[in-house]
């Protein structure tokens, strides 16, 4: 069954009333997922001319703090950073914050992770940019141990735990979604370690390339999570439905609805709610 999501604008809003209203309106409209960008730091607009400024200029919300607040004022919507740049952070701290959020939200948290592209962010927190992929792989293994065993002993390349842990096991288990490109090493990592994929490229290409790696890893392709994006543009419900059916045919399990960038905040919110209602009635 297709689930519906939406995200805060990449450039985060800092109007508390607007933040609260956005989340509560989506919750009341029956949305399943709310996402937010996981960048830690922003940079001056124009520094990376090959990239859209909103994707790196910020300012960005801290997902754990934001979702902790939103969990207290909503009832059903789940939360996922999309994505948290995991190698920027000490793994044990992420494990503890995620577990607390899973408890306080009533099991409504999903962790979306990736490695990102910005050496400047890594330098700012004293982390090595060059080994970020290898560290993320070990981090995921450590997170799963910390979330399934009260005390953990682990001796890896980047982590050492000597019978320490959170002392409790979060429930339900926290899904780990992985975002990234369709490079072979990224797809192999997603297939081995992820509960779902958030592709940065066209979903048809992404799934075609991911499928052999899922089969190689012994994963069930039909049940593997896939988050795709749908622009609720001027074509109206007929065009939205045609695209939603295409994405559903590719195996999409979550459909993240977006409004055209020229719409103001109130219009954008109304548009994605309209799109969700139209699609839900037909799919």
Quick one: overall form? Answer: globular
Tally of individual helices: 9
Amount of helix: 25-40%
For the record, give the distance between the C-alpha atoms at the N and C termini, rounded to a whole number.
9 Å
Evaluate the radius of gyration: 19 Å
How would a crystallographer describe the biggest sheet?
8 strands, parallel, barrel
Strand runs, count: 10
Range of strand content: 15-25%
Unreliable stretches (pLDDT < 50, length at least 5) are: none
Strands of the widest sheet, in order across it, are 1-2-3-4-7-8-9-10
Oligomer kind:
single chain
Helix/strand-derived category reads: alpha/beta
Which sequence of SSEs, written as H and E, runs from N to C? EHEHEHEHHEEEHEHEHEH
Name the average pLDDT.
95
Descriptive report:
It is a single chain. With 283 residues, the protein is α/β, with parallel strands linked by helices. The strands form two sheets. The protein has an eight-stranded parallel barrel, surrounded by five helices. A two-stranded antiparallel ribbon has the order 5-6. The mean pLDDT is 95.
Observed structural traits:
283 residues; alpha/beta; 8-stranded parallel beta barrel; two-stranded antiparallel ribbon
Nutshell version of this structure?
The chain contains nine helices and ten strands. With 283 residues, it is an alpha/beta fold.
């Amino acid at each position: 069954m297709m689930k519906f999501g939406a995200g805060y604008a990449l450039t985060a809003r800092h109007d508390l009333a607007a933040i609260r209203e956005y989340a509560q309106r989506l919750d009341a409209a029956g949305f399943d997922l709310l996402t937010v960008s996981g960048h830690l730091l922003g940079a001056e607009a124009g520094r990376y001319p090959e990239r859209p400024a909103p994707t790196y200029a910020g300012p960005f919300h801290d997902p754990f703090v934001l979702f902790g607040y939103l969990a207290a004022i909503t009832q059903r919507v789940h939360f996922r950073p999309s994505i948290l740049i995991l190698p920027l952070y000490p793994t044990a701290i992420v494990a503890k914050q995620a577990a607390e959020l899973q408890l306080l939200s009533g099991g409504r948290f999903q962790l979306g992770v990736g490695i990102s592209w910005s050496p400047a962010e890594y330098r700012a927190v004293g982390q090595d940019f060059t080994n970020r992929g290898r560290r993320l792989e070990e981090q995921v293994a450590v997170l799963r141990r910390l979330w399934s065993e009260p005390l953990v002993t682990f001796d890896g390349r980047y982590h050492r735990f000597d019978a320490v842990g959170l002392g409790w096991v979060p429930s339900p288990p926290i899904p780990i979604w992985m975002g990234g490109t369709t490079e072979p090493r990224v797809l192999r990592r997603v297939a081995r370690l992820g509960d779902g994929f958030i592709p940065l490229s066209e979903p048809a290409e992404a799934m075609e390339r991911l499928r052999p790696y899922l089969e190689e890893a012994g994963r069930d392709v039909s049940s593997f999570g896939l988050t795709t994006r749908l622009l609720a543009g001027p074509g109206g419900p007929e065009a939205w439905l045609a695209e939603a059916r295409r994405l559903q045919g590719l195996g999409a399990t979550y459909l993240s609805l977006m409004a055209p960038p020229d719409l103001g905040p109130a219009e954008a919110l109304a548009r994605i709610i309209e799109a969700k209602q139209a699609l839900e009635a037909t799919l």
